[in-house]
Each structure stands twice: as C-alpha cells, then as structure tokens.
Amino acid sequence: MEMTAATNAFAALAQETRLAVFRLLITVGPNGLTAGDIAQQVGVPASTLSHHLATLERAGLLRSWRVQRQIFYASDYEGTRRLIAFLMEDCCQGRPELCSADLTQAVPCGPVGCDHDT
Fold it and tell me: For the chain, what is the largest distance between any 2 Cα atoms, rounded to a whole number of angstroms?
C-alpha cells in the first residue's frame, strides 16, 4: 500500500460515524448490510450516512453492490488487510514476525476465515 492510500484510509476512519460504520461492517461479515440497516444501527440519518459510506468506499475499506433497489455495503477485507500490512511492515525493525502474534496473524484474515486457522 502506498503512503497516499494509507493516508486516505486513516483519514476516512478518523471520524466517529465512519469508524462506527467500519467496525459494524467488520463484525457483520461478507454479506454486509443495507444502507438503511447501517443507518438504523449506527443511529444516523440515511442522507448523512451516504456521504460517510462513499468516503469509506473511496478509501478502499468498504465495497458495495446493488440487489434490486437496495444497496448493500460490506467491509473490503483486502483493503483492510493492506492497511494492516502497511502498519506492520516496519514493525520491529522490518521483522514483523517479532511483533505480537495476534497482530501478524490478523493480516491474512478475510471474509472466509483466516489462512492461519487451517
């Protein structure tokens, strides 16, 4: 991940509503939620939420798709994985394996599970 992309991702997460949306969708998993469900669970008006969802999607942290008249949003696990890897790449003088096992094992996780779980 390039510095600009990482900066954009961090900027997207540096706002309370967007961070709440991101955390909600990480928890929900790959099937995601509709924009209306997200608005209800986060407690913001749908008109306000659309801006936040677009910001997170442009930052590579969410993905969206349409099913008939509804738009679903879910975490972009690959984008999240790249952001975590960016944070960890210089860990422990360039030796991320020396850092916490929990952090280094989180990197290969995705919507279908974790590579290290198999």
Answer: 50
Residue 115 lies in a domain: no
Residue type, 47: S
The pTM score is 0.77
Whole-number percent of the chain with pLDDT over 70: 78
CATH number at residue 8: 1.10.10.10
Is 110 domain-assigned? no
- Using alpha carbons, list the distances in angstroms from residue 61 to 88, 97, 103, 107: 17, 25, 18, 14
Burial 96-111 (b: 16+ CB within 10 A, else e): beeeeeeebebbebee
